[in-house]
Amino acid sequence: MRSRLVALVLSALLLLLVVAVLLTLGLAGGGKGRDLGHLVAVDMPSGEKGETQAKAAKAQTVQKSAATPTEAKVQSETPPDPVPVPVPTASYIKLSREEFAASDIAAIGRRRAAEAGAQAAAAGSAGANTSSTGGGPGGARLYNAQWYREPRDAELRPFLERGAPPGAWAIIACQTVEHYHVENCQEMEEYPQGSGLARGLRRASWQFLVWPPRIDGKPQVGTWVRIRFDFTKEG
User: Fold this and answer.
1) Nearest-angstrom CA–CA distance, 150 and 80
2) Are 202 and 172 in contact (CB under 8 A)?
3) What is residue 134's three-state secondary structure?
4) What is the C-alpha separation between 164 and 204, in angstroms, rounded?
5) How many Å apart are CA 52 and CA 46, to the nearest integer?
6) How many CA atoms, within 13 angstroms, populate the side-chain half-sphere of residue 23?
7) Helical ranges in 77-213 per DSSP H
8) Which pTM was predicted?
9) What's the rounded Cα separation, in Å, for the pair 212 and 144?
């Protein structure tokens, strides 16, 4: 019995020693350590088949290394994206309606001639009336009118009910306003007396366009002008 007990104790100690060795080698712990090795299976070809596979792998490696510079060269030769160039904006000069009308070359000569005539008429009438006390409505000074646009026969005819015989004439006085128009027109004289010519001209005066008198080159809007009509033919 004693020898058996000794044998069992020795067997248990031997078993514990084997387990400790296995744990130390890492065969019983599932490979938990970082630096522990692991088994690798390698298939080693033999004979001519192995040499052929080795040459093919080497040729493929050389081909890849040779193709790499070409790909890099193709990428380096790719042209850069074009830089957008801003489109220049069109420049222009703004003109008002008066400035655009003043730039009409064809009308410059006519306009200057009309202005010169109006200035001459205003200067002459101003000199003639300097010593006078008036003569116009309420004693106002009268200036001889200079037409900006002469009235047409069609504009006058509806207001001359009896017509006008050759040699007839009529005078009205009007006050100048903006845009060459006149207002507050009054009958002054007519021949023949009682012909109604002055009354007809007064009624048609809303269509008249005259230059306002000028003094020292400045238009005198609001002044009074004398408008005389001379009828030279039947109608």
Assistant:
1) 73
2) yes
3) coil
4) 15
5) 10
6) 6
7) 97-102, 105-128, 153-156, 197-204
8) 0.45
9) 10
